[in-house]
Structure prediction request, 106 residues.
Amino acid sequence: MALIIDDTAVNEVKREREEKGDANIHLRIRVDGGGCSGFQYKYEWDADAVSDDDAIYEGVIVIDSLSLKYMKGSTIKFHDDMMGRMFQIDNPAANSSCGCGTSFSL
Prediction:
């Protein structure tokens, strides 16, 4: 199953690059243990070099190979509404998720 990157996520990273004046910045997404459901997504702006272990999507989103195993088939979007501005991952492999939207279990 492929990872789907919605245009809303790509456009937000590009907007952030322009705002920061740094064309090399990426959105790095990783899966860590913890959170209220067992695993949690971590997002960070990363201008460091991309390693051989990383996958690059649309030239702006970076995910390491271990995290990618937990995210297969997921869709990454960006939401900007009354609830706030945030990246959101819809992971079909997740059995449950927390109300915060960043924690999940498999």
Remarks:
- The chain has a mean pLDDT of 88.
- DSSP finds two helices and nine strands in the chain.
